[in-house]
Specification:
Blueprint lengths: L18 H13 L11 H13 L10 E2 L2 E2 L6 H17 L5 H10 L1 H21 L17 H18 L12 H18 L4 H19 L1 H13 L8 H28 L1 H12 L7 H14 L3 H11 L7 H18 L6 H18 L5 H31 L3 H10 L9 H24 L6 H29 L2 H13 L7 E4 L3 H11 L11 E7 H5 L10 E6 L7 E7 L4
Parallel strand pairs: 3-4
Antiparallel strand pairs: 1-2, 4-6, 5-6
Helix pairs in contact: 1-5, 1-19, 2-3, 2-21, 3-4, 5-6, 5-7, 6-15, 6-19, 7-8, 7-15, 8-9, 8-10, 9-14, 10-11, 13-15, 14-15, 16-17, 16-19, 18-19, 20-21
Amino acid sequence: MQRTTPSRLTEIATRKLSRTALLVVGVLYIFAGLFYRDPWKTDDLTGLATMLTALRGQEHAWLLPQIGNYAYAQEGPLLTWIGTLFIQVFSPVFMLFQAPLEAQITAARLPIFIYFFVIIWATWYGTYLLARRKECQPLALPFGGEPNPQDYGRMIADAAVLFIIATIGIVIRMHETSNFPLIMMCQAVAFYGMARMLDHPLQGSTLAGLGLGAAFLTRGAIGGVPVLLALLALLFFRNFGRQQKLWLVWSVALAAACCLIWLAAANNTSSYWANSYVFWNNSLFSLPSPTEIFSTLRDLSWFLWPTWPFMIIALWNWRKWMDAPHIFIPTLLLGAAVLTVVFQKDAFESEYAMLAVPCAILAALSLPTLRRSFVNTLDWFSIMIMSLAMVATWLGWVALNFGWPPKIHHNITRLLTGFEPQISVITLILAIGVCVAWIWTVSWRLRSNPAVLWRGIVLSATGLTLTWMLLALLWLPSINYNRSYKAVSKELASVIDENNIPTECIRQHGVGLGQRAAFYVFEGLQFAFDPQCQYVLLQTTFEKIEDEAEPYPDNATLIWQGKRRPDRHEVFRLIQLPAR
């Protein structure tokens, strides 16, 4: 039976999007909020801590991720390798005008530019290869005027990139020295390899295998299982001939070789670390309860906004073409990622990363199937939401700095106890420039009323980028104050030095992973495992202190109690136990 394509549009709707404009949006998006701040808990700090541990010469830390002397057997080594290499190469340059630690932090963030632009490159080319195939082409018009495959493919690829930039949930996590942007890059490379296998099996299978191996070396089963499931499912893909299916064996073998070589070296170096890594990966998955499924769907509804409604529309409108490569391949990746998230314990943003790329690709494929009125609705919705977000950003900044409106001022200062806001003229001018850029973008849309299909998502991507820039310009100092552990780490280090406490004999109780990483990053503090050590750093809450719920005897000596000033619950106590 003849299938009718749901894609209907004219040549004018695929007019080329400016490469310069797309590049500028991408650079502004990734640069804003990346520098001039402290690393924040948890993933931002833990990723940086593993890099600094390797840099500072901790035993086996190059091969086995560690936070000081703590075996961080929850991640693969790829993030540590890349970050440490960049610190070694570029931190001497930054030390010319920064303190050593600040220079190392700055250098560790440079790979994020690579991760982001590889994501954009791989997504664009993979989508372009699929969208220019005959199965994806729009309906031929009676008198001609439909776009040619190259223009049509370029338009869909541009839209996929813009949908990634417009995805709300990834904007903060994309700027962390964590595995979040790296695992997205691995998946995007694997997707490009899968698409490339249709016409260049060797090149495509090699890229897919490298993406799969890199995903395992980044996040273990969380990163590798979704890509592996998608690759294995391609064995049942009717558009893959015998040759392509044989090359899938090469992809899996290449990935297995990369991972097994590292695992063998890890086991020979430290069987404790390797066993902990295997145990952690084996304990990741379980049958979810209805409550957990509902919670995951609720979180994904905001994390993947605005791409998920368009993704659903694409799957519905292209439902008769599910076996076509442009739908089948991204749907495989999306379905495998959804299964991994649903059956994983305590999945959240770090795990949701694997859904962003395939969701954006499918969302882009929905655009040529939509009515013009629906696309116009997206335009107006983007204008309204992003404009309101900018107004709210300015309103909060005015309340913080000038005390009006008083209720908003009170709510903000409760979260920023002790913070003294300062107004920078340069920052203020740049923030006004961001708003002018948004007004110009909206004016362009209203004046020119372009017929191009990417106009709505351009407003979403540009609006989110400019809103993020405005937030970084006006609020970065206060957010950094709220989330940084630098001050409390320095305070603890000063107390340890003043009381001549041996740093090699301080144990911990209840100190979280992010806090442990913070103390190591800022002051090089490592915790001992010897039960004979008298000094203990305790992380607790004021409620537990009032309820006398601490696990240590009354004759313990309290040496220091401190906290981050904006935190109303978390408190640290350094105590000395009586000698045994």
